[in-house]
Each structure stands twice: as C-alpha cells, then as structure tokens.
C-alpha cells in the first residue's frame, strides 16, 4: 500500500529538502519504489540537491495543467533504481497549482510508487497547505532553536486541521525529525535538548540528525547525503529514520562521526 | 573570558525552553481547535457584524487567552462614528 509523506517545517532553512532527498534515497536503496516531489514552485531546489537540475524538462505544474504526461515529467535517478523526482516549476507561481490538479497527480503517483514524498515550501501559505493536503503522514523537520520549534508547533496545528485526513476526522500521523543537532552543546545546556523539544511539541521522534559538514558536502556534489557518504553520521541517522518509517523498530541514538587514526592525524581528506 | 566567568555562565537552553512553553501555551488555542481557530472566529464574527453594520476590517480584534481554569475570548470591534445601522428586516 502506498504512502504519501509530507516533509514540512514552517520555518525555512531547517533541512526539509536535504531530509526529503536523504530519506527518499534511503527508502529507495531498501528496495522501496519512491518518488520525491518538489512543491516549492518558483523556488525549486530539490532538483539541485538531487543532482538532476539539468534533466528537468517537464515539472509538477506541466502535469497539473495537463501539458505533459506524468511519465514524461518523472526523472529517474541515475544512482538508485526505484527513485524518481518530480521537480517544481521555476518560472510559474504557486497559483498555477490547483487543488484538483494536485489531487489528480498525487492519486496517479500513488498507483506507481510505494512512497510519495512531498517536499513542502517554507511558510504556511498555499504551497505548504497543498503539499500537506493529501498526506497520510508527516515528518516535521525542526532545529533545536526557538523560532524553529515555534513554527513547527504552528505547522502541527495545520496538519491537524487543514489536511484531508484531519477533515475526515482521522488522526494525522506526525513524526519529529530533529536536525542540525549538536549533542555537545545540548549537554552543555546551550542548545535545546531532545527531551525539551519532544516535551514542547509532543509528537513522536523519528530521528536525530547531527549537525555535520557532510550535509553541505553532499549538496555541493548534488547527491543525497545517504548516497554521497553513506557511512557518515547524518547518513546513518537518515537511514535509521527511513527504517523506522518502514515500520522497523530501530533504537534512536545520535550517531557520531567515526574518526580513524589517519583522519585524526591528517584532518579530513579532500573530496575524492 | 576567564575560568570563573566561564563556569558561572548561565545555561541558555532552560531559558529557551521556558520562553517557548509560555509562548506556545498562549498561541495554542483552546482544546480541540486547530491553531487557526482565532482567525476563523474573526472571519465569521466579521461576516455576521458586516451584515448589519459597516465596519473597517482592520478595526476588529479577536484575542484568546488561555488560563488554567478558564479561557477568555476577547472581541473588540470599533464602529466608525456615523456608521450606518442597516435594518435587519
């Protein structure tokens, strides 16, 4: 049975697109059929993070408006079988997304894929509400920082009121993904702890992604961090989160960078 | 920064946590409602009043305060002087 997952946060810059790409690639490498869909019309970036920016011909809007068939707009990942991308349009504005059009495209994607992962734009406007509209479950991406936690709280309110599932009177499944977490600063009392954020937002924890230079290195290369450096701490954390989404029970821990003696002696090696 | 001032430096996370808890208890609306409840109430109240009285949309304030025992809903509507009262029929 296919699942529609929205990756959302309210606040911008907390890691929605990074998380969409990383979790999408992680699920696909477990053998699931996955499509990642960029809902950030006008400010698309998922194509860039996935390294497919030069392969976009048709996009979500072309399909919504009937100018292209879904099959023409889907971009298959060159690294992982089972992983596809549906890009957002860079030139059109959000009003080009109609509610009926989005519903039709999501329904069609459900037939083809096990996971439809919608990368929400920041904010609480139309683009964000359309991205969450048809979701079965939500991943709320939050940084351990006051403005991000406040905005996540607002988004949780919208997930519980503005989605189809909520309107049918069903409970929306929500998961917290704590990103850019620094265990040392949290232990020192200078960063909100996992317990603090969980107590304030009171939704179950999907994973903790440690702050890491590997995330920027991966986006520089145009690859999800789970593919670019699969053994790195953030990649392992995303991989665990993906397994939890699949229903496996994996203990939650903050992975740390594994430093070999050579790493310690010579610092980080340059990108290969 | 010397060692003493480093040791006596106050942890900031507990402050963040407390500020958030106070803020969000205000921002979350009364039990069961979505977080847009205040806006929804504002729109519907406006609609009803506007049927009978001409008013400026910006002059309508709806505030919700959540207390431990009771919550209060405060509605403040400013009607311009000489605002015409239409007959409700």
From TrEMBL, chain A:
This is Septum site-determining protein MinD. GO terms for biological process: division septum assembly; negative regulation of cell division. ATP binds at residues 11-18. ATPase required for the correct placement of the division site. Cell division inhibitors MinC and MinD act in concert to form an inhibitor capable of blocking formation of the polar Z ring septums. Rapidly oscillates between the poles of the cell to destabilize FtsZ filaments that have formed before they mature into polar Z rings. SUPFAM superfamilies: P-loop containing nucleoside triphosphate hydrolases. Keywords: ATP-binding, Cell cycle, Cell division, Nucleotide-binding, Septation. Belongs to the ParA family. MinD subfamily. Residues 5-225 form the CobQ/CobB/MinD/ParA nucleotide binding domain. CDD domains: MinD. It comes from the Bacteria. GO terms for cellular component: cytoplasmic side of plasma membrane; cytosol. It holds the Pfam family CbiA. NCBIfam families: minD_bact. GO terms for molecular function: ATP binding; ATP hydrolysis activity. Interacts with MinC and FtsZ.
TrEMBL record, chain B:
Gene3D superfamilies: Cell division topological specificity factor MinE (3.30.1070.10). The keyword Cell division applies. Keywords: Cell cycle, Cell division. One of its GO terms (biological process) is regulation of division septum assembly. Pfam families: MinE. The keyword Cytoplasm does not apply. Signal peptide: none annotated. Prevents the cell division inhibition by proteins MinC and MinD at internal division sites while permitting inhibition at polar sites. This ensures cell division at the proper site by restricting the formation of a division septum at the midpoint of the long axis of the cell. Belongs to the MinE family. HAMAP family: MinE. This is Cell division topological specificity factor.
């Amino acid at each position: 049975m296919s699942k529609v997952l929205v990756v959302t946060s309210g606040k911008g810059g907390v890691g929605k697109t990074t998380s969409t790409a990383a979790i999408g690639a992680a699920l696909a490498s477990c053998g699931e059929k996955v499509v990642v869909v960029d809902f950030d019309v006008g400010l698309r970036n998922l194509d860039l993070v996935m390294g497919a920016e030069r392969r976009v011909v048709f996009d979500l809007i072309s399909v919504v408006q009937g100018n292209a068939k879904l099959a023409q707009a889907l971009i298959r990942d060159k690294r992982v079988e089972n992983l596809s991308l549906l890009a957002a349009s860079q030139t059109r504005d959000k009003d080009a997304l109609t509610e009926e059009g989005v519903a039709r495209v999501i329904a069609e994607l459900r037939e083809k894929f096990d996971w439809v992962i919608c990368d929400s734009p920041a904010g609480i406007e139309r683009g964000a509400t359309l991205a969450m509209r048809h979701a079965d479950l939500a991943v709320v991406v939050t940084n351990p920082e006051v403005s991000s936690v406040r905005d996540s709280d607002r988004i949780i309110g919208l997930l519980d009121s503005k989605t189809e599932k909520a309107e049918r009177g069903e409970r929306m499944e929500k998961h917290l993904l704590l990103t850019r977490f620094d265990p040392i600063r949290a232990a020192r009392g200078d960063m909100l702890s996992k317990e603090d954020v969980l107590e304030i937002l009171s939704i179950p924890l999907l994973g903790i992604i440690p702050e890491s230079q590997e995330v920027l290195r991966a986006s520089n290369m145009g690859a999800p961090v789970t593919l670019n450096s699969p053994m790195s701490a953030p990649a392992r954390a995303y991989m665990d989160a993906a397994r939890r989404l699949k229903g496996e029970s994996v203990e939650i821990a903050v992975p740390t960078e594994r430093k070999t003696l050579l790493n310690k002696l010579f610092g980080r090696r340059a990108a290969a | 920064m010397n060692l003493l001032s480093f040791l006596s430096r106050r942890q900031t996370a507990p402050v963040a946590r407390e500020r958030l808890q106070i803020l969000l208890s205000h921002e979350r609306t009364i039990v069961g409602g979505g977080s847009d409840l205040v806006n929804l109430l504002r729109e519907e109240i406006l609609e009803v009043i506007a049927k009978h009285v001409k008013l400026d949309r910006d002059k309508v304030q709806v505030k919700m305060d959540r207390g431990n025992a009771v919550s209060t809903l405060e509605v403040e509507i400013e009607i311009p002087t000489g605002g015409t009262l239409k007959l409700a029929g």
